[in-house]
Structure formats: C-alpha cells, structure tokens
Amino acid sequence: MDIRRQEPGNGEHGGSANGQEPDLVGRLFEAHADALFRYCLLELGNSSDAEDAVSETFARVIRNPPRQNRKLTGDPDRAWLFGIARNVVREQRRYRRRHPAHPIDALPEPEDRTLPEPTEQLIAQHDLEEIRGALEDLRDEHRQVLLLRFVGGMSSDEVGESLGKSAGAVRIQQMRALEALRQQLAARQLDEDQG
Amino acid sequence: LTEFDDVMDFERKLEDPDATDPRVQTARRLEALATSLPAVNPALLDRARASAAAPVGPSWRSRVLVAAVVIALAAGVVGNAARTALPGDALWDVRRVGQVVRYQLTFSPDGKADLLLSQAEGALQAARELAEAGASERAVEALSIAAERIVSARTVGATVSEANRARVAERLEKAEKEHGAIDDPDDHDRGNGNDNESDADKDRGRGNDDRTDGDDKDKGRGNDGDRGTSDRDDDDDDSDPPGRSDTRGPGDSGSQSSSDADGSQGSSQGQGDKAKATKPSNRDAEVEERGSKSRGKSEDKHESDDD
C-alpha cells in the first residue's frame, strides 16, 4: 500500500492513532521505531537520549512529510528515516561534547526491559557497555556502517543510499569496520583478562 | 581484484549461518546485542506529535542569515552615508577607513594613482564647501588630507603606465593648483591675475628673508625644531604634502619666510609659497617683529594669530 499517498489523517499532523487506522507517521513508527531506537541507543549510550532522538526524528517526519512522488517501497523509507535519525544523533553528540556534564544511564529503566532474568540482564549490560565502548573507538564512518547494517537491519544498498555511497563502497567499509571492531573487542577482552 | 574477491567472499560468509570467520562472528554478536535491546516506548509517537505541534523558532541557519543580511544592510547604509561625510562629521572616520580599505584593495599603480587623485579631489571639494560654510578648522583638515593624497599620488604617479602618465600628471597638476587656490584664494587670484606683482612680492619676501636670514635660521635650527624642520622638509623632501605648512593659515610667519626661500623652485610647488609672499600686512608685521623681538616671542604671537 502506498502510505505516502495517503491524505493527512484526522489529526493536525497526519492524524491520531487512537482507535483508528494508523496514519502515515504511525505506520512508519510501527515499522521502524524499534530499529531506530536501538540504533540511537548504541550511538548515544543511554535510553533517555535515545528516546529523545527517536521522538525528535518522528517530529521532523511530521513537520516535513516525505514528498509524495518518492519511490514508495519500504526500503527507501528506512534509509530516509535513518538519515534523519543520524542527523539528530549527530546533533545530540555535538551537544553532549559541549555540555559534558550529562548523566549517563546505560540501559533503560527495568520496566522498559525485555530481558526476563537479572543474570541475562547483567550479561546484556556488560555486552552493551563493551560493544558500545569498542564502537566509540571506531572511526565515525565505520561505526555508522556497522550500526546501520547490523543494528538498523539495512542492506548494503540501503546503507549506501543513506550515507551517499555506493553499495560496493559500503561492503568494503563493512568488512574493514568489522575487522576493526573485532580487534577493539579483542583488546578490551585482553585488558579485562589481565586486569 | 583481490579486495573485490575478498569482499564478495565475505558477503557470502555473512549469509552463511555456520561461518567461522571472526569478523562474521563479530557481526553476529552485534546483531544479537541489537535484538536483545529493549523495544521502543510506543508513547514516543505521541511525544513526537506534541513536539511537532509546538511552535518552532527559527533555526540557527536562518538566524545567522538574517543577522548577516542585517549587518550587510547596515554596513551598506552607513558606508553610503559616509561617502559624503565631511571632516568633523560623525561618519568622517568611517569614510576615511573606507578610503584606506579601497586603497589597500587596489593593486595596480594606475588604479592607486586614480584612487588617490579622486580622494584628493573629494577632499578639495569638501574643503571648498567647508570654507564657504565658514568652518575653517574643518576645511583645514580636509585640505591637509587633500595634500597627503596629492603627495601620495605624486609618488605613485611615477610608477603608472606610460599610457596613463600624462593623464595622471594633468590631474595631479590640476589638484595641486586647486589646493593652492583653496588654501589661499587671495594669493591664488593674485597669482593668476597679476604675476608681476606676485613676483615682486616674492622678491620682497626674499629680500626680507635675506635681511633676517642669519638671525632667523640660526635661531630656528637651534631652538625650534618645528619651524626649522618645516623649512628643510620643503627643501629636501618632495614627499612632504604640499601646503601642509601653508594650511596653518596666513598668520604662520615661520612657514612663510621659509617658503619664500623656496618660491623659485617650481611653479606648482612654489605656488602656495608665492602666494604667501603677497600678504602685506602679515608680512610687514612679521618683519617688524623679527627685527625687534626674539624668535620665541614671535612664534607666540603667530600662534595666537592662528587661533
């Protein structure tokens, strides 16, 4: 179904989802918000910033809805949304660099968690911190490719479209980025074992 | 080709669930972490709607753009108003800064000479208007600036191209004549209308100088650097703005006596000096004073005349 060609819903910005068929923004939210949130969480490292980023991303979608003559498959939607989210994340990171005294809560509150057991939660927490730390040490373009590809679930073509690169260039960068991440994780593991 | 093969091979490994490549396992670990992360809070959509409905201020880009436009407009308005500013006006300094900037941004000698002459002509025009309006101090300032520009134009004029040399020289000469005319209109009229009289005055002035030369010049060199160097500057250095000492006004007897000595140097250079030599009342008074009073006392009197 062509979600871009729908008329704006009953609400002011595309309609409300209360008891009605989801409007354009609602559909986009349902389809991509989880991946966007995870992407933002790994980029920003805490759930409140990630939620802010997702909220701001969709607010921008509502303010500037996609052009109706765009190609209307699901993949361009995702690339387009992640492009907006990437800008929002970049702005937030810049803001944090300028205001470093920002509280950090690595994971969401317990009621938001989907992990059932405390042990698994601890393992996930440890894994998250370790991988996030390693990602932070990567070059920005490597981190972007990995997050869009493996956290956002995008194909190389979509990542290329989102980053303005060819799919071939994305594949090469993805391979190099994975090698860099592997080395970072190995170094961290070594430090942990020695410490 | 090797890297291309590696990439394609790696793509195949990524699709293979049993791949043992450590890079692929790193990718699997990243994917596993992503799927283990919590789902998004559905309330965020309502938050986004509320956020989008809230009025949004102008972005920093539009603010910067507006500020740049306002500054440019203000600079344009002020700059335009300053183009007609006269000495003593609030925008006079802005005009002078603009002149300096324009000069610095002009690179060819021909352009520099034309610019300096235009500025000199503008200053002469300002001096004329101010003199007519009775603002003598401001007129003197404008005249001084015109003199500086003329001197600079003369220096730059030596380096202009052959094609423009005659034209620049003509403008220069005209500006110098105009400067002399504004500086002392009585002398100018006399110089134009009655050269013989002027020459006679000059001779008279020279004779006066001869009469007082030994005494005055020695004293000037020994006691008064201002007057003494002013004389010597006229002799030694053409770069000294013409009429700089002349702009002090008719009461400046020290300059007059020294200029008299220079009167025979050339028509343009000596014009103001020649004119000065034709001030009977001041001249006679000065000679009388020189004969009877000391140099310092004489200066005091002339300075008070200036005032």
SSE pattern of chain A, N- to C-terminal: HHHHHHH
Oligomer designation: heterodimer
Question: Percent of residues of chain A in beta strands?
Answer: under 5%
How many individual helices of chain A? 7
Mean pLDDT of chain A: 78
Q: What are the main properties of this structure?
A:
heterodimer; A: 195 residues; mainly alpha; 7 helices; 67% helix; 0% strand; globular; disordered N terminus; B: 307 residues; 15 helices; disordered C terminus
Characterization of the model:
The complex is a heterodimer of chains A (195) and B (307). In chain A, 67% of the residues lie in helices and 0% in strands. By secondary structure, chain A is mostly helical. In chain A, helix 2 crosses helix 3 (74-98) and helix 4 packs across helix 7. The termini of chain A are far apart. In chain B, helix 6 packs antiparallel against helix 7, helix 9 (185-193) crosses helix 13 (267-276) and helix 10 packs parallel to helix 14. Chain B is elongated and about 105 Å long. Chain B has 15 helices and no strands. Chain B starts with a helix and ends with a helix. With 307 residues, chain B is mainly alpha-helical. The chains are: A mainly alpha (195), B mainly alpha (307).
Give me the secondary-structure topology:
The complex is a heterodimer of chains A (195) and B (307).
Chain A: H1 24-44, H2 47-63, H3 74-98, H4 118-136, H5 140-151, H6 156-163, H7 167-194
Helix pairs in contact in A: 1-2, 1-3, 2-3, 3-6, 4-7, 5-7, 6-7
Chain B: H1 2-15, H2 22-36, H3 43-53, H4 60-82, H5 92-104, H6 109-133, H7 136-157, H8 162-183, H9 185-193, H10 195-223, H11 225-236, H12 253-262, H13 267-276, H14 280-292, H15 295-306
